[in-house]
Amino acid sequence: xxxxxxxxxxxxxxxxxxxxxxxxxxxxxxxxxxxxxxxxxxxxxxxxxxxxxxxxxxxxxxxxxxxxxxxxxxxxxxxxxxxxxxxxxxxxxxxxxxxxxxxxxxxxxxxxxxxxxxxxxxxxxxxx
Length: 128
Description:
Blueprint: H1 3-18, H2 50-66, H3 76-90, H4 99-110, H5 117-126
Helix pairs in contact: 2-3, 4-5
């Protein structure tokens, strides 16, 4: 996930949390054990102690969306887990291609998907 995508998602979470009709009257700490619990072995794609981190990410996301906590209340690791959990829940797959590979893919599409040998040389020069 690129830094700008993280910033957009973080801004969206902050706007959602701040867009409540009335400001929250009390701030609570991030929840430790939400309900319902996922099935055994379900890690939501998060590394580490999967169940604990995934459960905490789910609880923190719910609390953020309900306005019970703020993003500033979360540690950097918890915030990253919330961002990863939300991305997985929405089915958004990060684009892990390098800039050069993205450029090559885009240029190949512009050339109709089957560039000539000369076009490949131009693409290589263009995407260096």
